């Protein structure tokens, strides 16, 4: 947690996009593409019907979808993605009740050294099992994850499920005795963000983003609480947890950080109920990209989670 | 520069040093002792460290650089062994330090209950980073189990942290609900529910007896009911005691804590003290807010500035992610106090304000704490709230409007919740049908069959219509159970089943009760519904019963009671009669009456004599006749084939069997049976709740008769060919009545509502249903088939002692 964060390492997530419904199709609202201009231009021309391509599939099935192999799949931008070196994608639909607000798509590139994980857990009965996940080079950790399950309240996914709130865990591999700590430690995983993903299917889903120091999936995480039960009727949110590779712990027990709707990118998410991807706002904190995602309960935005890379 | 020595580097002394250095960094040269090998960290945040939501580094308040910047000599990891007040030195393990002023901030020690086995390896308190790390290490073990004794703030934070680490945790709490010092029963219920959803097991009213070990290490906790809870770690979080040993040995004035005045000075003018180790005006401290106030006052005293410590009201928050609670002030019930209660079952919200006069004296909130600070300020300021009283509960943003939603309980039901138990129709199906055009009850009945059989779910179905169609649906008026609630008896019964509500607090919260604990109308009904539906899980609540049932005797108009032992089937013996006569003599019973139910009533017994007369009758082999209860009263019989020349079957034998099977069971209203040995009907069976008439071919089982305000002949339920079948039919009918009828409806009223055909379908036609009813009755009887007299003689005797006669004292 010092100021000399290595920003030359290529990030785990290369591309983040927000697709929003327009008529009966999903169109690109905004994307951050880094140097991948060609892929950006292909994406800008694209749109998806319900059930079509990766965003359309996430919409149709009402659940997050992980795609690790583009060839021969329903993925529509395979050629452009291959040319850009992108090998995997995760689509996260954002629902307010049964209404689709947007689909957040993240695309990753693969090599032998990039450690990290984006996981989708789904619950049935009293158990959460791994629906799917993208792990980069953390193959051993992937294997372990496929063979564990979490009860309510247990570990990061079970904790998120039990409390129905986003959680941020520290030291996944070292000081913190993560349920999968041994292999997490070997993969160099440090922090983990878990968030509940409400689905119109009624089935519980939990998304986890696990980041490693060397090849960070994100270098800064924030969790904002926007429930009226916590902040009152004012459309505001308070920071309830956060950690940053540059600034250290972001949460101060004695000093509350509060933002209003439409104030900065987090306020934008709070005001519109839509996810935000933004390069310039991330720059304020010294990062390339900000992704901020709302969590809805019925029609209310209950939380906003943000990650910076 | 003057020398200041501080013993203890906790949060209070840390804050004091901050004030001191801010005001005058050059005033003192500071030496800081700490028994822990580290400086000041935010102890309140140990629970997020335990859960993995924070690292230790993130909760450090003063790091090495801070101490260096302020030129503090740190002697961490070194215990102070004594204070020599004459020489004004503090004696540490590694040498002495002289002081001009000394601050004792030794904090508190966790209280360890001296249970057998408390010194076993693996029994720990929850106080510092070492304890936290012990718990974190436990999380690394596969299938680790922990027991936490103590359902207060600290215990629950320990439990939640351990659970997130993957540990199988059970919280054992001696009181009736969690955090009883901060929360009332309703908020405690919601907290327990939320913790259970996190996979934490909670046992209230659980008394620890012994900690069991193996090879010197903890193995399990044994409760006094014999339950063994296996564990690898046992955390005791039952409270703290001020740490006063050092001050006491130094000869300072010490009570519960180190005595300090308003300036935080002890009985020695050069020694000051603050934090959890002090006692100020009889109060000791466990929450951080007053400690920070003390820190400011103490710093000013050291600098010679006038300041005074005033102990203020404090509010409480629990740091378990996903559990939002708030508590402030005093929320005990009292005659001069009034409650304002708001519940939103759909959102799991409970708010209660306690008012005395026109002032808020206490506030408890769960699930929605946004207005906590606002209420807290009104408590502290003793604001007159008369003007905003009507909307007070809705908080500052709603001054002027807003009412509770009576449909909230139904709205909160999941789509797969069964609404119509008879036809297995769930909420989703009904809502779909309404959306599909079924806009009233008859068309819904036709399409889904919901409310088409017994009709007890009609209220719920109407609420679904109202919920789905909004204002366009005009519901017929239904009678709510009482002013505490908008639901009818039938709705409450059905929701207790479909939402699996197994305690009174669960009913109050999930069904949106408008009072804290119900009233004299709804409590007996809800108590019955709960014990009838969940006989094994729910414990009968004596306080929710009418006086006759509480006292197990009928109160008479002069305040005395009647005592009536059971005479099985109306048969008695000379020995029983002698015992009754002896009891009547001994207790000077003025009236002995033979009743219409074929037994003997002793009228005019004094309340305080009840246990003694019961004990005498018990000794003669007699038990309570339940002549006062909403339960089985008598089984009236004729002499049958043994003596009567017209008798066709052994009616007396059958009556005795039935009474021995059914006695002790609670029912919606009283139940009386009759068995006649032939159609001449000497036992008057045809006007009983269940009446059996023996005939040559077997037994005619009739139900739903009446001979009180209404007179009505029984209706034929079925003809049985064997005695066993007659018993089975009777039992199944009574169980169906127990499970479905409205409280205080006699069977004839209930049958009129649901229809005899509906009853026959379940009791006569469907053999599986009949057997299941009998089975459920027997499960319930495993709890309730016992003599309440014997139980009260043994366990409740003091409740019958007369109140002290105060008239004499008053006269004096």
UniProtKB/TrEMBL annotation, chain A:
It holds the Pfam family GAF_2. Residues 19-106 form the GAF domain. This is GAF domain-containing protein. It comes from Pseudooceanicola nitratireducens. The lineage of its organism: Bacteria, Pseudomonadati, Pseudomonadota, Alphaproteobacteria, Rhodobacterales. SUPFAM superfamilies: GAF domain-like.
Automatic annotation (TrEMBL), chain B:
It comes from Pseudooceanicola nitratireducens. This is Assimilatory nitrite reductase (NAD(P)H) large subunit. Siroheme binds at residue 682. GO terms for biological process: nitrate assimilation. Signal peptide: none annotated. The keyword Oxidoreductase applies. One of its GO terms (molecular function) is flavin adenine dinucleotide binding. Residues 3-278 form the FAD/NAD(P)-binding domain.
């Amino acid at each position: 947690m010092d100021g000399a964060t290595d920003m030359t390492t290529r990030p785990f997530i290369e591309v983040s996009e927000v697709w929003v419904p327009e008529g009966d199709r999903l169109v690109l609202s905004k994307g951050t593409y880094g140097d991948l201009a060609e892929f950006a231009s292909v994406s800008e021309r694209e749109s998806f019907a319900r059930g079509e391509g990766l965003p359309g599939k996430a919409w149709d099935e009402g659940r997050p979808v992980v795609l690790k192999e583009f060839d021969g799949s329903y993925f529509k931008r395979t050629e452009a993605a291959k040319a850009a070196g992108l090998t995997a994608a995760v689509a996260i639909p954002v629902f307010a009740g049964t209404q689709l607000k947007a689909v957040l798509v993240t695309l990753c590139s693969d090599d032998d050294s990039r450690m990290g994980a984006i996981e989708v857990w789904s619950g049935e009965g009293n158990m959460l099992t791994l629906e799917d996940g993208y792990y980069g080079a953390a193959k051993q950790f992937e294997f372990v994850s496929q063979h564990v399950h979490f009860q309510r309240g247990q570990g990061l996914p079970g904790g998120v499920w039990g409390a129905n709130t986003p959680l941020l865990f520290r030291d996944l591999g070292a000081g913190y005795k993560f349920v999968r700590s041994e292999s997490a430690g070997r993969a160099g995983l440090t922090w983990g963000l878990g968030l509940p993903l409400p689905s119109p299917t009624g089935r519980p889903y939990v998304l986890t983003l696990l980041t490693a120091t060397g090849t960070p999936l994100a270098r800064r995480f924030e969790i904002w609480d926007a429930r009226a039960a916590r902040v009152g009727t004012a459309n505001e949110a308070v920071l309830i947890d956060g950690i940053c590779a540059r600034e250290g712990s972001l949460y101060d027990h004695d000093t509350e950080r509060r933002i209003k709707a439409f104030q900065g990118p987090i306020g934008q998410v709070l005001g519109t109920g839509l996810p935000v991807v933004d390069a310039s706002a991330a720059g304020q904190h010294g990062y390339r990209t900000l992704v901020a995602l709302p969590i809805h309960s019925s029609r209310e935005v209950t939380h906003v989670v943000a990650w910076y890379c | 520069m003057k020398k200041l020595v501080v013993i203890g580097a906790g949060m209070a002394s840390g804050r004091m040093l901050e004030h001191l250095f801010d005001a005058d960094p050059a005033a003192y040269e500071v030496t800081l002792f700490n028994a822990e090998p580290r400086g000041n960290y935010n102890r309140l945040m140990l629970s997020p460290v335990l859960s993995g939501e924070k690292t230790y580094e993130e909760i450090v308040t003063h790091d090495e650089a801070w101490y260096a910047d302020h030129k503090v000599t740190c002697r961490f990891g070194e215990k102070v062994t004594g204070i020599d007040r004459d020489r004004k030195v503090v004696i540490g393990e590694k040498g002495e330090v002289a002081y001009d002023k000394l601050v004792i901030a030794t904090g508190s020690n966790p209280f360890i209950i001296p249970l057998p086995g408390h010194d076993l390896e693996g029994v720990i308190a929850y106080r510092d980073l070492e304890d936290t790390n012990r718990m974190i290490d436990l999380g690394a073990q596969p299938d680790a189990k922990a027991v936490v004794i103590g359902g207060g703030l600290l215990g629950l934070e320990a439990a939640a942290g351990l659970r997130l680490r993957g540990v199988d945790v059970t919280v054992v709490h001696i009181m009736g609900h969690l955090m009883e010092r901060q929360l009332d029963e309703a908020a405690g219920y919601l907290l327990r529910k939320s913790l259970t959803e996190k996979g934490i097991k909670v046992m209230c009213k659980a008394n620890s007896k012994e900690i069991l070990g193996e090879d010197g290490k903890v193995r399990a906790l044994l409760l006094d009911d014999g339950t063994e809870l296996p564990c690898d770690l046992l955390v005791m979080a039952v409270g703290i005691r001020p740490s006063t040993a050092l001050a006491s040995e130094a000869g300072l004035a010490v009570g519960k804590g180190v005595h300090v005045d308003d300036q935080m000075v002890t009985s020695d003018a050069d020694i000051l003290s603050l934090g959890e180790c002090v006692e100020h005006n009889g109060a000791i401290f466990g929450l951080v807010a007053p400690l920070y106030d003390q820190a400011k006052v103490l710093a000013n005293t050291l600098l010679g500035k006038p300041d005074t410590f005033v102990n203020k009201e404090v509010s409480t928050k629990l740091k378990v992610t996903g559990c939002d609670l708030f508590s402030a002030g005093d929320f005990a019930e009292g005659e001069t106090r009034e409650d304002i209660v708001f519940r939103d079952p759909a959102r799991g919200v409970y708010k209660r304000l306690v008012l005395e006069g026109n002032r808020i004296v206490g506030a408890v909130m769960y699930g929605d704490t946004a207005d906590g600070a606002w209420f807290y300020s009104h408590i502290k300021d003793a604001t007159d709230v008369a003007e905003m009283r009507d909307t007070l509960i809705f908080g500052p943003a709603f001054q002027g409007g807003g009412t509770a939603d009576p449909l909230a309980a139904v709205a909160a039901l999941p789509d797969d919740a069964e609404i119509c138990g008879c036809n297995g129709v769930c909420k989703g199906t009904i809502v779909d049908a309404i959306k599909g055009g079924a806009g009233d009850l008859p068309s819904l009945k036709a399409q889904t069959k919901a409310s088409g059989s017994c009709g007890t779910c009609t209220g719920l179905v109407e609420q679904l219509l109202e919920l789905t169609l909004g204002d366009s649906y005009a519901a017929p008026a239904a009678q709510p159970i009482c002013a505490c609630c908008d639901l009818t008896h039938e709705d409450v019964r059905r929701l207790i089943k479909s939402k699996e509500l197994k305690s009174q607090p669960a009913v109050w919260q999930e069904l949106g009760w408008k009072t804290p604990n119900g009233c004299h109308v709804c409590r007996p009904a809800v108590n019955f519904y709960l014990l009838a539906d969940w006989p094994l899980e729910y414990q009968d609540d004596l306080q929710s019963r009418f006086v006759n049932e509480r006292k197990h005797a009928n109160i008479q108009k002069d305040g005395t009671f009647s005592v009536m032992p059971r005479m099985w089937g109306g048969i008695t013996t000379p020995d029983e009669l002698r015992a009754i006569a002896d009891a009547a003599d001994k207790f000077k019973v003025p009236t002995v009456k033979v009743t219409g139910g074929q037994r003997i009533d002793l009228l005019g017994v004094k309340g305080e004599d009840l246990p003694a007369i019961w004990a005498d009758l018990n000794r003669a082999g007699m038990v309570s006749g339940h002549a006062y209860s909403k339960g089985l009263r008598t089984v009236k019989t004729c002499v049958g084939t043994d003596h009567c020349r017209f008798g066709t079957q052994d009616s007396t034998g059958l009556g005795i069997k039935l009474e021995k099977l059914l006695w002790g069971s609670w029912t919606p209203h009283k139940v009386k049976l009759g068995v006649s040995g032939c159609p001449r009907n000497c036992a008057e069976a045809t006007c009983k709740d269940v009446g059996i008439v023996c005939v040559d071919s077997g037994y005619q089982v009739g139900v739903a008769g009446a001979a009180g305000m209404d007179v009505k002949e029984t209706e034929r339920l079925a003809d049985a060919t064997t005695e066993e079948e007659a018993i089975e039919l009777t039992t199944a009918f009574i169980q169906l009545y127990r499970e479905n009828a409205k409280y205080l409806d006699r069977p004839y009223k209930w049958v009129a509502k649901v229809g005899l055909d509906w009853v026959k379908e379940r009791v006569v036609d469907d053999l599986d249903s009949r057997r299941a009813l009998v089975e459920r009755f027997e499960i319930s009887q495993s709890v309730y088939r016992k003599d309440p007299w014997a139980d009260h003689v043994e366990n409740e005797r003091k409740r019958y002692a007369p109140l002290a006669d105060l008239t004499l004292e008053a006269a004096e």
